């Protein structure tokens, strides 16, 4: 870091987190209320808070910062609330309905539900125009582009006041000329209207995915570019040395001009920085296989890195819209501090996905919430300090929590309040465990081979219980856990994805040459884009991925490799990587079957210098930080144990806390269950490990069943 | 019963693990199968059974697969009674043993724990082909089941852990597209094993007895739930009759009647149908369970999880043996999962509409689609597939909303996925000229039925055989609560073959050869509407017109809305009021 500061600004639903790093390794978190109506207002407010608390004026901070980084939810919010731009779609005639047909599928879980509505159309049918033109699967032109029809569509859009246009034709990835010519005509006839071209945004096979991705992009582009303009302008006015970088759902940073054009990359950026943060925390220990769990008020986000690489998803449904571009895989579950415990129509106890949110919030907040929530359970179990969360700013009412649990769960089920509270805790943990299987087991990984990393304010109470349920023996909890995603953003690199379809069998010199040239073309573009942004060639890194399958299969499996020159001999290396991945995922490989590659992608990144690590002074032993004891419950019997409580701010490096215990940090509470030991390291990370005496998950479960 | 009451928390946890197990079985099928019917279309189902064997978890996969798995599992277990061992794996497709149609092939894997049979993991998948004279199995000319394909009674594929390669080879030798078939069999086997692994781990963790107690409790809870729903329906006998149209077989239209008798918290559903016919629309008894249960679920509208406890208070009678819905060997049956099952489902739904008018929703479009086959010059090999995109119809409207577009057919209830058109064109030598919604296809009503779809295809460079199946080309999907359509032709399905500029409309099941340069368009019906269409708000009708879902003519005929100006969509309110008053 050449300059004094680095500033990260991560907008969330309720709060916008500000993280300020300085060159000495000091890291501070500030919060301001989010202002969805005018997102730049929250930035101004946050900088005012920083000035108030530190005396550093916004201009002084920004002009002395090497980099200002912003994770924004403006795109996400517009997609959730359906308040994007009025968008028109130009499609191949006969295929203008693919985004409404949605492959003819209704989501699981609502099979017989008469009230579950169809997904809201981002482009209603009267703004979708089919144009005569057709390219076929060989790349040949079957029907030339009818320019008159296209012009008529533009006139229609102009009459209707369309603010953004997407163009997506069938097989345009093999022959983009029709789309490019159509783009020319749209630009002529609709000057100044943002335009998204399917084959440029997402040059991969699958028409529905490409069209849907283009539509989401077009829907958000005007919103993002307006936002970027405001933020860039504000930071320029404060004397910023570098343009603001925006955080993307691919886990990398991007220039404002890029997220304005490729807005779809900005939609789920929030939790996408967790893998980077996890690897940073694990680095001193050589840990590269890490599952990060982030529990907030209403949701629980899971990410995974294996061998230092984050799981990536492509071609997924996000908020009911199909999106193709590579995004960090984030499995989200409706399980948070506000998740409500209830009894379903069959008589089974459930947790969530309904949430009491922050208004009225859990019953113990005393703001009118009557339903029992995860937070209420944790309070009754003694894990949370009744004096309050967030350093005492939010006192909690134990009696209100007990009453809610008694009325809605314990009495109807005929069990004690304590047992019901432990039941709520157990069920929400099991829901989370089942969700963690989706990023691990379903990706071919055994979660027991991973370390669990704690992020988010509400996770600490559950983290050792989750590890126990998963059979994981080591847990990391950073002192920055509650703001870990914001922190992840300021240590991320600039990253862009470049894609191409290829559709070739992995055989012969010709195929090797095509692959090699395709990657070279993609990566030359990437290097040029990053060098124009002042990255020296030695700071540019490349990671390749290939979507491959056995000939005859329909589903591809993605294989990720470091770059190497591809000649005929190198094809064997690629094939070997594919066989291995197939076996890892599906329990078998077919080494003698021919292999084909369908799509390729290069992720090109420019390394950003890391700020210095946090330093914690040597401690004098945990006893010095003991602040008292509380009665806590650790099993379904409901029996209370007098349990020590430590003040995290007073713990020093090398201090060891043996469970059962609770460590209270200002913004999070860490429960160390019996059988676990926590040691604070010099970088501000609690390393929590299971001791040999820890009850294996199955014994605990049996005890529960017998209780 | 002396069974101890399991603690409510473990119960919820076990329920969660069962659902995760089923999900992971389904995922294994989806990701490892070879054929596109499996892979793109999700035409497969998974279920878990206890040792009894009673279904303890029904996947949310294809509804019409799952009802029949209940009698099929019982039949298979009985067939091998006393001869079921650890490491056995049983294959079966025979409708005379509770199967649906023979192209739906089932795999049954007994799960042993400490030497004792505890569970079965089961899955079923629609293969690309099952041998027989017509590729992909649908042979409208068959007069006996023997002319439809390979019939497999329960047979062990593995015997105490030893794969019986000779049996497997016998089966594969009798099927087209062997490479796909091997991949699909592996997928089915893999899914069963993934399920077994999870169940064993569950028992390791909680103990066998606790798990079994929890499962028994889950079955009881489902039973109590369904009984409660049925008890809310006034006692009495209710009947519903739906007409199965003559799809060109010449046996005429047929009535299928469901008689639902409600007494207290129990329910008896009796089906009556005409004698079986020498045409592929007969349903054996096991398959008919699926239609009955689907009609019941359209009334019950329950969220998951689903298990056999739901059906304990329901008794069924599919009518005399040798009738259309209780066929006996050697009746041909290949079309049975759609025809007559969707008509049977409608009959049950109509009977419940009489019994519980507040909980009714309209019928969905019935399946009428096609299979294609031919030679793929690109790889010099034969291709054959069912085209799922060709059966995507509209969903029925409900008491609260319009029907979903493109979500049917009724027998699948939105569980299918039709596959990406570029992937289909990559896999088969075809050009798909159209896959779109159809104007005026949704049934008229206060809530409109969902739109059906049109799928239009041209072979790329060599002749293609196209085999159609199903019905719904003359009688539109039935509405509910007084819904009524006037403009009928766009609401029913048909096949349109265009050769040399001449379009031939076909409403019967046929085998056609289509040459490059010629096109075949398969149209699927929309869903039924709900409530009086004249009560649909005028602005919603105008919105449908703006979106091209309803034509000016449709607005006038179906909804009594007169639009005076096609450009501005201005409504002639006086004329509208006159029409709607009539």
UniProtKB/TrEMBL annotation, chain A:
InterPro entries linked to this entry: ACX-like_C, ATPase_NBD, Hydant_A_N, Hydantoinase_A, Oxoprolinase-like
Cellular component terms (Gene Ontology): cytosol
Domain Hydantoinase A/oxoprolinase: 210-496
Residue stretches making up the Hydantoinase/oxoprolinase N-terminal domain: 6-189
Any one biological process term the GO annotation gives: glutathione metabolic process
Domain of life of the organism encoding this protein: Bacteria
Name of this chain's protein: N-methylhydantoinase A
Automatic annotation (TrEMBL), chain B:
Gene Ontology terms, MF aspect: 5-oxoprolinase (ATP-hydrolyzing) activity
Record GO biological process: glutathione metabolic process
Domain Hydantoinase B/oxoprolinase: from-to ranges: 7-533
Pfam families: Hydantoinase_B
Cellular compartments per GO CC: cytosol
PANTHER family hit by this protein: 5-OXOPROLINASE RELATED, HYPOTHETICAL 5-OXOPROLINASE (EUROFUNG)-RELATED
Protein name: N-methylhydantoinase B
Source organism phylogeny: Bacteria, Pseudomonadati, Pseudomonadota, Alphaproteobacteria, Rhodobacterales
């Amino acid at each position: 870091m050449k300059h004094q500061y680095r500033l990260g600004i991560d907008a969330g639903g309720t709060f916008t987190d500000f993280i300020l790093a300085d060159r000495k390794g000091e890291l501070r978190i500030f919060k301001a209320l989010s202002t969805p109506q005018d997102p730049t207002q929250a930035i101004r407010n946050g900088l005012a808070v920083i000035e108030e608390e530190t005396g550093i004026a916004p201009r002084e901070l920004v002009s002395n910062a090497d980099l200002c980084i912003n994770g924004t939810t403006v795109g996400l919010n517009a997609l959730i609330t359906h308040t994007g731009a009025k968008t028109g779609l130009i499609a191949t005639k006969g295929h203008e309905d693919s985004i409404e047909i949605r492959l003819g599928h209704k989501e699981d879980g609502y099979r017989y539900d008469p009230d579950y509505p169809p997904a809201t159309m981002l482009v209603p049918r009267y703004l979708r125009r089919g144009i005569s033109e057709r390219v076929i699967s060989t790349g040949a032109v079957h029907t030339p582009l009818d320019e008159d029809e296209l012009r008529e569509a533009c006139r229609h859009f102009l009459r209707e006041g369309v603010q953004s246009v997407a163009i997506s034709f069938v097989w345009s990835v093999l022959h983009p000329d029709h789309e490019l010519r159509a783009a020319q005509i749209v630009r002529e006839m609709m000057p100044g209207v943002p335009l998204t071209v399917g084959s440029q945004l997402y040059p991969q096979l699958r028409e529905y995915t490409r069209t849907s991705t283009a539509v989401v992009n077009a829907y958000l582009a005007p919103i993002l570019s307006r936002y970027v303009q405001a933020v860039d302008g504000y930071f320029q006015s404060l004397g910023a040395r570098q343009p603001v970088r925006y955080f993307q759902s691919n886990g990398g940073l991007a220039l404002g001009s890029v997220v304005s054009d490729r807005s779809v990359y900005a939609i789920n950026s929030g939790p996408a920085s967790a893998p980077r943060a996890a690897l940073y925390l694990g680095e001193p220990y050589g840990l590269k296989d890490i599952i990060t769990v982030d529990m907030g008020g209403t949701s629980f986000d899971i990410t995974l890195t294996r061998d230092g690489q984050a799981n990536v998803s492509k071609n997924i449904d996000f908020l009911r819209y199909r999106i193709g571009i590579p995004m960090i895989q984030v499995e989200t579950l409706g399980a948070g501090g506000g998740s409500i415990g209830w009894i379903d129509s069959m008589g089974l106890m459930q947790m969530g996905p309904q949430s009491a949110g922050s208004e009225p919030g859990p019953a113990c907040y005393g703001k009118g919430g009557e339903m029992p929530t995860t937070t209420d359970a944790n309070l009754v179990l003694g894990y949370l300090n009744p004096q309050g969360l967030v350093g005492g700013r939010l006192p909690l009412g134990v009696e209100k929590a007990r009453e809610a649990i008694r009325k809605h769960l314990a009495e109807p089920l005929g069990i004690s309040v304590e047992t019901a509270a432990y039941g709520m805790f157990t069920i929400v943990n099991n829901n989370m465990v089942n969700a963690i299987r989706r990023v691990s087991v379903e990706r071919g990984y055994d979660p027991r081979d991973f370390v669990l990393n704690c992020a988010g304010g509400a996770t600490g109470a559950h983290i050792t219980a989750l590890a126990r349920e998963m059979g994981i023996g080591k847990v990391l909890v950073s002192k920055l856990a509650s703001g870990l995603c914001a922190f992840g953003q300021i240590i991320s690199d600039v990253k862009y994805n470049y894609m191409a379809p290829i559709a070739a069998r992995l055989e012969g010199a010709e195929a090797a040459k095509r692959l090699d040239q395709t990657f070279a073309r993609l990566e030359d573009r990437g290097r040029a884009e990053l060098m124009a942004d002042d990255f020296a060639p030695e700071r540019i890194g490349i990671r390749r991925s290939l979507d491959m399958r056995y000939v005859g299969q329909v589903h591809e499996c993605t294989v990720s490799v470091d770059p190497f020159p591809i000649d005929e001999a190198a094809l064997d290396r690629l094939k070997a990587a594919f066989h291995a991945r197939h076996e890892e995922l599906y329990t078998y490989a077919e080494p003698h079957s021919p292999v084909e590659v369908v799509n390729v992608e290069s992720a090109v990144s420019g390394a950003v210098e890391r700020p210095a690590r946090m330093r914690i002074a040597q401690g004098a032993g945990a006893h010095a930080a003991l602040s008292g004891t509380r009665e806590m419950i650790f099993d379904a019997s409901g029996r209370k144990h007098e349990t020590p409580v430590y003040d995290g701010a007073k713990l020093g490096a090398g201090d060891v806390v043996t469970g059962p215990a609770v460590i209270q940090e200002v913004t999070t509470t860490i429960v160390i269950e019996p059988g676990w030991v926590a040691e604070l390291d010099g970088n501000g990370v609690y390393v929590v490990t299971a001791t040999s005496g820890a009850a294996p998950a199955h014994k605990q479960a049996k005890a529960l069943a017998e209780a | 019963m002396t069974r101890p009451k399991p603690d409510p928390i473990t119960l919820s946890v076990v329920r969660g693990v069962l659902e995760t197990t089923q999900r992971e079985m389904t995922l294994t099928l989806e990701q490892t199968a070879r054929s596109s019917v499996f892979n793109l279309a999700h035409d497969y189902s998974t279920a878990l059974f206890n040792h009894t064997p009673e279904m303890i978890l029904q996947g949310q996969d294809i509804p019409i697969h799952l009802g029949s798995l209940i009698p099929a599992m019982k039949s298979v277990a009985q067939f091998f009674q006393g001869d079921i061992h650890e490491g056995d794996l049983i294959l079966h497709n025979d409708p005379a043993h509770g199967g649906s149609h023979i192209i739906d092939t089932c795999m049954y894997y007994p799960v042993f724990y400490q030497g004792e049979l505890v569970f079965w993991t089961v899955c079923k998948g629609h293969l690309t082909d099952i041998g027989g004279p017509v590729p992909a199995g649908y042979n409208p000319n068959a007069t006996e089941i023997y002319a439809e394909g390979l019939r497999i009674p329960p047979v062990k594929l593995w015997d105490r852990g030893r794969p019986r390669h000779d049996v497997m080879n016998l089966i594969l030798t009798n099927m087209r597209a062997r490479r796909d078939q091997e991949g699909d069999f592996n997928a089915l086997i893999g899914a069963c094993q993934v399920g077994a692994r999870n169940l064993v781990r569950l028992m390791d963790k909680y103990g066998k007895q606790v798990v079994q107690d929890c499962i028994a409790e889950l079955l009881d809870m489902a039973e109590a739930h369904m009984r409660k729903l049925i008890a809310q329906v006034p006692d009495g006998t209710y009947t519903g009759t739906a007409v199965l149209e003559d799809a060109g077989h010449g046996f005429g239209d047929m009535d299928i009647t469901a008689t639902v008798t409600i007494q207290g918290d129990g329910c008896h559903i009796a089906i009556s149908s005409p004698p079986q016919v020498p045409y592929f629309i007969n349903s054996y008894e096991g398959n008919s369970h699926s239609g009955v249960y689907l009609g019941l679920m359209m009334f019950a509208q329950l969220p998951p999880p689903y298990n056999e406890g739901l059906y304990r208070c329901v008794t069924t009678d599919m009518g005399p043996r040798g009738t259309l819905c209780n066929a006996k060997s050697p009746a041909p049956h290949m079309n049975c999962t759609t025809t007559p099952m969707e008509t049977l489902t409608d009959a049950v739904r109509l009977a419940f509409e009489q019994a519980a008018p507040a909980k009714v929703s309209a019928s969905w479009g019935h399946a009428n689609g096609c299979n294609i086959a031919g030679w793929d010059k690109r790889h010099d090999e034969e291709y054959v597939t069912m085209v799922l995109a060709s059966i995507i119809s509209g969903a029925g409207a409900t008491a609260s909303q319009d029907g979903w577009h493109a979500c049917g057919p009724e027998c699948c209830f939105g569980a299918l996925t039709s596959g990406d058109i570029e992937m289909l064109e990559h896999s088969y030598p075809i050009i798909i000229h159209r896959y779109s919604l159809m104007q005026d296809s949704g049934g008229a009503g206060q809530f409109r039925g969902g739109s059906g779809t049109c799928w239009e295809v041209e072979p790329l460079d060599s002749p293609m055989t196209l085999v159609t199946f199903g019905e719904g080309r003359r009688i539109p999907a039935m509405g509910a609560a007084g819904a009524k359509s006037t403009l009928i032709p766009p609401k029913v399905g048909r096949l349109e073959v265009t050769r040399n500029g001449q379009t031939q409309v076909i409403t019967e099941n046929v085998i056609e050869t289509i040459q490059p340069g010629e096109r075949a368009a398969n149209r699927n019906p929309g869903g039924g509407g709900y409530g009086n269409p004249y009560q649909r708000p005028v602005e919603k009708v105008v919105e449908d017109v703006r979106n091209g879902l309803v034509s000016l003519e449709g607005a006038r005929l179906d909804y009594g809305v007169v639009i005076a100006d096609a450009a501005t969509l201005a409504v002639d309110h006086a004329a509208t009021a006159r029409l709607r008053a009539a």
